[in-house]
Amino acid sequence: MKGGDTARPLNRVSDLDALFLASETPTQHLHVLATLVLDRSAIPGGGDYELVQSRIAERFHMIEPLRQRLKRIPFGRPIWVDDPDLHLQRHLHHVVLPEGGGLEALARTAADIASFPLPKDRPLWEAWFVEGIEKDHIAVIAKIHHCAVDGVSGIFALAAFFDVKPFPDASTQPPTWEPAAPPGALEVGRAVFDGLRRRPAAVARSIKRTTSTAVALARARGEEAPLPFSGPRLSYNRALTARRSVAFTSVRLDDVKHVRQGLGAPVNDVLVALCAGVLRRFAIQRDELPARHLVAGVPISERKAEHGAAGNQLSFLLYALPVHLPDPVERLEFVARSASLVKDVYAQAGEGFFASIASLVPLGALAPLMRALSAVRVANVLPPVVNVLISNIRGPDLPLFVAGAELTSIFPMGPLIEGVGLGITVVSYRDEVAFGFMACADLVPDVQELAAGVHVEMARMLDAVNNSG
To answer: For the segment 180-212, what is each residue's pLDDT rounded down to a tens digit?
Structure first.
């Protein structure tokens, strides 16, 4: 694929992507991560760093955010341009865990990687090759900024590096790549002028849409219809530090489907109710069980085929998490009612509502404001916008391979926001549902307790189904 001789259309960062970029602070790192565990037993010679490095070199250019860096332009949002000085060695790293490290040691390594921001002078991603997990297994920890991908597009990006059979034919290998020429000054100037010309009408539409949705949200009745800033403050709802803690675990997809069928609820509601049970158990362990529900921020994908595989296409829903209810069936019924209410509000708002809000934010003022609020730790004073972040992403159903190694597990990790020191990201892959817990290490040093709670609460939900008949 030759691109160095012609310039491509201007690829300006969207309002929503720019919001993620401008909101980053020294303690609020807005990157996403995925830990990929691979079985390398079928690779001749055992499968080394060089094999994975070679695969990344062959295919990274297929995903725009991996080959592009940000370029600032006058008046507002930056643009993406191919990086003519891209050197893969600046993005690739190699780690060997202590002998017998296992999954917990891998999670600690992921936490260390998550604890510092990505450099902004290059494409906004890194990949870490990890050895020493256990016999015949390696891992790759992928890290990319949220302004470049959301959960769904992140899965698309990862899929580009995999094959559906261990050793694909040579004919399936992609062509070579050269960076495209950056847009010229005239093209940039024309785009800036056009954006300024359209801005007033776009802002007016966003204000009208945001106002009507706020009215619909205020009219929603019942305990199951939560509002922002309405949840109780827990010990992890405080100002962030830069340090992160991470835990991984997984359950069988068949168990989740069994609960879905037995209790008549969608898979997403089952997983949210499972998280509510985990958080209830955790609150009891910390002697801070509230007498009312928590509020969870739950992203929902709005991605369509025409959106491509980069950037963010999402909105956020607010779910009520009934941690105050001891019975798992009652919790699931509560979550189902909450989901129905918030989806009704979302239907009134329509797709693109969150992007409309982002278009109203003065991005030039946002970055210094966020840094100032973080420095004075304002999240210790204000009520949390939500208590916890929960994301559920459907992953591939088929087995995937990279350079002969079979992908056995995907453990996802989303970012944290000020006042919300705990996030739970869930991804399904083949017959497994994997949980990645990301937390602020100074607020949740015992994050492994949350991972352990998944199995306890899954067993309780299965018992409830089996005893209901």
So the answer is: 877 766 766 666 666 655 555 555 555 555 665
* pLDDT at 3 (0 to 100): 43
Structural domain of 138:
11-186
Mean pLDDT rounded to a whole number for the chain: 85
Residue 105 CB: number of other CB atoms within 10 A? 17
Distance, in Å, from the CA atom of 219 to the CA atom of 385, rounded to the nearest integer, reads 19
Write out the E strands in 1-57: 11-12, 31-39
For the packed helices 328-349 and 448-468, what is the interaxial angle rounded to 10 degrees? Answer: 100
Query: Rounded CA gap, 126 and 48, in Å?
Result: 18
Which CB contacts under 8 angstroms, 24+ apart, belong to 426-429?
426/271, 426/275, 426/390, 426/391, 426/392, 426/393, 427/34, 427/155, 427/392, 427/393, 427/394, 427/395, 428/253, 428/393, 428/394, 428/395, 429/395, 429/396
Q: Which residues contact 345 (CB under 8 A, 6 or more apart)?
A: 213, 216, 217, 220, 225
Residue 286 covered by a domain:
yes
SS3 percent helix, strand, coil of the chain, rounded to 5, is: 40, 25, 35
Supply the pTM of this predicted model: 0.89
Point out which residues pair with 153 in neighbouring strands.
Answer: none
- Token pair, residue 160, equals 């580009």
Rg (CA), the chain: 22
Q: CA angle at residue 158 from 39 to 124, to 5 degrees?
A: 120
Q: 279: domain CATH number?
A: 3.30.559.30
Cα-Cα-Cα-Cα torsion 45, 46, 50, 53, nearest 10 degrees, comes to 140
In the β-sheet with 79-82, what is the strand arrangement from edge to edge?
A: 11-12, 79-82, 68-71
DSSP letter assigned to residue 415:
-
Q: What CATH number does the domain containing 95 carry?
A: 3.30.559.10
From 184, 231, 215, 180, select the one nearest 389 (Cα to Cα).
231
Q: How far is CA 275 from the centre of its chain?
A: 16
Residue 199 lies in a domain: no
Task: Specify if 193 maps to a domain.
Answer: no
Residue 29, C-beta contacts closer than 8 angstroms, at least 6 positions apart: 114, 115, 116, 117, 242, 244, 415, 416
Following DSSP, what letter does each residue of 234-248 receive, concatenated? Answer: -TTSS---S-EEEEE
217 occurs within a structural domain: no
| β-strand pairing of 92-96 with 125-134 | parallel
The candidate with the shortest Cα–Cα distance to 468, out of 340, 327, 321, is 327
| Residue 53 DSSP SS3 | helix
